[in-house]
Amino acid sequence: KAVVSTQSTGNEINTRQPIKFDQPKEEVAPDGSFAIRRELIRVITNMSCNNKNHQDKVRVLGGVHTILNHCVVDKQNPYLAQWSIVSIRMLTDGNAENQEI
């Protein structure tokens, strides 16, 4: 059984400096790891569409609060906030328990 902690010290998220528009491209996370959070939220969004079982699992594991915490502007993840908002919509669509959060 996996244990997922929703507690955050604030240090493990956004440890990279925000990019500047005049910053050379090779200085911006060349491995693409900065996009992992966005892609994970995108997967959760797509899996939650019209799937109450998955919506409930995300809620039980604390995922709704985690996704709400990602509704911020991040220059390295330009669509992170948009995917987070769509994800919240999919997680609350037809799910009264998730809407109460």
Describe this structure in words.
The two termini are 24 Å apart. The protein has helices at 36-48, 52-60, 63-68, 80-92, 96-100. It has 5 helices and no strands. It has 101 residues and is mainly α. The chain is elongated. The chain is 46% helix and 0% strand. 21% of the residues are buried.
Number of helices: 5
What oligomeric state is this?
A: single chain
| Biggest sheet architecture | none
Helix/strand-derived class?
mainly alpha
- Estimated helix fraction: 40-55%
Query: What is the global morphology?
Result: elongated
SSE sequence, one letter per element: HHHHH
Spans of at least 5 consecutive residues with low confidence: 1-6
Q: Span from first to last CA?
A: 24 Å
Q: Report the mean per-residue pLDDT as an integer.
A: 77
**Hey, roughly how much beta strand do the residues contain?**
under 5%
Strand runs, count? 0
Query: Radius of gyration over alpha carbons?
Result: 15 Å
